[in-house]
Amino acid sequence: xxxxxxxxxxxxxxxxxxxxxxxxxxxxxxxxxxxxxxxxxxxxxxxxxxxxxxxxxxxxxxxxxxxxxxxxxxxxxxxxxxxxxxxxxxxxxxxxxxxxxxxxxxxxxxxxxxxxxxxxxxxxxxxxxxxxxxxxxxxxxxxxxxxxxxxxxxxxxxxxxxxxxxxxxxxxxxxxxxxxxxxxxxxxxxxxxxxxxxxxxxxxxxxxxxxxxxxxxxxxxxxxxxxxxxxxxxxxxxxxxxxxxxxxxxxxxxxxxxxxxxxxxxxxxxxxxxxxxx
Length: 278
Ligand code: PLP
Prior knowledge:
- The protein has 8 helices and 15 strands.
- It has helices at residues 22-26, 44-57, 66-79, 122-127, 150-161, 204-215, 227-231, 263-277; strands at residues 2-5, 8-11, 29-37, 40-41, 85-92, 110-117, 129-135, 166-171, 174-178, 182-187, 190-193, 220-222, 235-240, 244-251, 254-255.
- The two termini are 29 Å apart.
- The relative contact order is 0.13.
- Pyridoxal-5'-phosphate binds next to helix 6 and strand 13.
- Homodimer.
- It is an enzyme of class 2 (transferase).
- Its EC number is 2.6.1.21.
C-alpha cells in the first residue's frame, strides 16, 4: 500500500510525520475524501474547488497546483491498482514547536494521501439505517473541511452507543447535517436540504443529488427545516462520498414515512447508480 507523502510515493512504514506536526497538536489542517469508481476519481473538480477554498480560508498554502495534485492522486490510484474505494488526502500547516501563532513562513505544509479499497455500501443503501438527533455543537465554519472533527467524532459515537447508524445534528431544532454526511427529507414529494452556508459542509454528493433531482424533475428547496418537519416527512436520506444515498428509516425510535426506503429516494439512488456506471 503506497502513500503519497509530499511529492514521494512511499510504503506506509516509511512515511514519517513529526510529533510537532500542527495537524497532531491542533487539528491544524484540511482534508478531502474522494470516491474512486472503476479506477477513476469521481467528481474531482468539486473536491479540488472545495479543497482550495478550505485551504485559502484557513490560510494554508497548497504545496502545489491542483493540476499537479490531480496527477499525483491519479498516479497513487494506479500504483495501488485501486478500482473501487476512496482516496484520503490531508494537508497540515506543517511541523513547528507547539505554539498557537502560525509557524515561521519557511515551514512547509505536510501533504499525505492514501487509498482505501472499500466496496459500495450496498446493503445499507438497500435497507436504510436508523438515526438519532443530537445538538450540533460545532463551530461556525462547518463549510471548511478541516481536521478538527472532535464534535463529529463524539456525536457519531453517541449514535453508535445508542444502536443507531448515524446522528442528525440540529441547532435549536433546525437540522443542519450529519456527522459525516448531508441530510435531506422528502415532504409532499419535494426535497428539502439545509442551504449551503457556513453551518454545513457543502457536500459533493449533495451537489450531485441536487443535480439529479433537477434532471428527474424532483422539486427541491435549499431551505432550513426542523426536527418536527423531519418526523412528519415521507422520506429521509443522507448523502456522502462513502454512503452515497442511504435511506434513513427511523429517527429517535420513530418511523419515517412507512419505515422503509421511499420511492423518491429510490429514484435518486437509481440515477446515482447510472451516473457512476455511465
Ligand atoms: N457533512 C460532513 C460533516 C462530512 O464530513 C461529509 C463528508 O463526508 C459530508 C457532509 C458529505 O460530503 P461529501 O458528499 O463531499 O462526501
